[in-house]
Design brief:
By secondary structure, this protein is of the alpha+beta class. The chain folds into two domains: 222 residues, Clam (outer membrane lipoprotein receptor (LolB), chain A); 139 residues, Glutaredoxin. 23% of the residues lie in helices and 35% in strands. It contains nine helices and 22 strands. Strands 1, 2, 3, 4, 5, 6, 7, 10, 11, 12, 13, 14 and 15 form a 13-stranded mixed β-sheet that branches. Strands 20-19-18-21-22 form a five-stranded mixed β-sheet, covered by helices on one side. Strand 4 and strand 5 form a beta hairpin. Helix 2 crosses helix 4. The longest helix has 20 residues. It starts with a helix and ends in a 10-residue tail after the last helix. This is TlpA family protein disulfide reductase. It holds the Pfam family AhpC-TSA.
């Protein structure tokens, strides 16, 4: 073997070794994250769709968002200005502000805020260019990603690369708090290292039943040339005539002492019922929606109240506010063990009862008058106030 042949034999393995390293999907994702992070400013349009196994398709979110690099921000390292009708939301490194032009109201809150273990997340942020570049550029990405698949594909008439993998939600979500579930991620990236499609599939085990969330985002109309004025990210940019806080209306309910608005709603089993036909008994209305965590926590309390006060002529009635599909609601009620009557099409009376949150409880007396209201799950508070209204000691069982 001459020296030229020996050189050829040495260089071929070296060439293939380099080539294999360059095409390693993990290294490709790292490289994509690095290139994404190099963009100082970026603007694009988005469409976000969410499907829940237990409630079906949620409303589609459409908007336009602008990100710019902010090296002083320790949370996401970027400012953003998001337009999603009827709201405008911005973040400049302090807090995120939401404005509603229609009624000149605004609200501000920390970008990352935790209460009772729950993080406040923004769908347009969690399913965004910013979120993707954050986790793709993390130094420990190769330790966090599992079952990585890469394929060439055509998406929106563009040559792209498809990646899918599993990762802990704490790794891929911007709020970096939850680490209970693993999510399957799908990414479609074009040749300019810009994401065109991003999805998350989260399986959720509940009492041996498998539920899931599937969220997908579509990106279009990219611009790397747009530059927003820095004034758009400052609090002083909000007109003085705007009213704070826009979400106070969510915490307002119908006043005690007024007549409960009448309604007729269909039952899951049987004919429709009318509220005015229930005069002569106490009625506890529970406005809820599928998937609401606090609503689920309230179910054992409502079952207990129904059982304890049935002989005192009190009836618990659940009103589903989000779905019109009785079979889906019926299946959910059975799975959750709701032992009281449930009605659907509650969205038709939501405005009458100022239902902007869940759960919301209204206790109505025998004359049809509202005597107690409560927003949110608080078992002890609800049972004590019902006992007070019925002049009976609250049950001693645990909450």
């Amino acid at each position: 073997m001459n020296s030229k042949q020996l050189f050829f034999l040495i260089i071929i393995p070296f060439f293939f070794s380099c080539n294999q390293k360059a095409s390693n999907p993990i290294d490709e994702l790292k490289s994509i994250g690095k290139r994404m992070k190099e963009n100082n400013c970026i603007e694009y349009s988005y469409k976000i769709e969410k499907y829940r196994s237990y409630s079906g398709q949620a409303p589609t979110r459409n908007g336009k968002i602008y990100f710019e690099k902010n090296l002083e921000d320790s949370i996401i390292g970027m400012n953003f200005y998001n337009k999603q009708a009827p709201f405008v939301t911005f973040y400049g490194g302090d807090c995120h502000v939401t404005m509603r032009k229609a009624d000149s109201t605004a609200h501000r809150a920390p970008l990352v805020h935790f209460k009772n273990g729950h993080g406040v997340s923004l769908p347009f942020l969690e399913m965004s260019y910013c979120a993707i570049q954050l986790f793709l550029s993390k130094p420990d990405i190769e330790l966090q990603i599992d079952s990585l698949v890469k394929n060439d594909t055509i998406f929106n008439n563009q040559a792209c690369t498809y990646y899918s993998f599993w990762a802990n939600e704490k790794f891929i979500d911007t709020h970096k708090a939850f680490d209970k579930y693993n999510k399957k991620v799908e990414l479609i990236i074009n040749n300019n290292s810009l994401p065109l499609y991003y999805s998350q599939y989260k399986p959720i085990m509940r009492n041996k039943n498998l539920d899931y969330h599937f969220t997908e985002a579509f990106f279009s109309n990219y611009s790397l040339e747009s530059k927003y004025s820095s004034s758009l990210f400052r609090m002083e940019n909000i007109p003085e005539y705007y009213t704070w806080d826009m979400y106070k209306s969510v915490r307002k309910t119908l006043a005690n002492g007024q007549a409960a608005p009448d309604w007729t709603l269909p039952q899951l089993d049987g004919d429709s019922i009318t509220l005015s036909d229930l005069k002569g008994k106490y009625v506890l209305l529970d406005f809820w929606f599928i998937g609401c965590g606090a609503c689920i926590k309230s179910i054992p309390t409502l079952n207990e109240i129904q059982n304890s006060y049935r002989k005192h002529n009190l009836e618990v009635i659940g009103i589903s506010t989000d779905l019109k599909n009785p079979e889906k609601i019926k299946e959910y009620c059975a799975k959750r063990g709701m032992l009281y009557r449930n009605l659907f099409n509650g969205n038709s009376i939501s405005k009458k009862y100022k239902i902007n949150a869940a759960p919301i409880f209204y206790l109505i007396d025998k004359k049809g008058t509202i005597v107690y209201t409560q927003i949110g799950h608080d078992s002890k508070k609800l049972k004590e106030n019902i006992a007070k209204q019925l002049n009976k000691t609250a049950p001693n069982r645990g909450s």
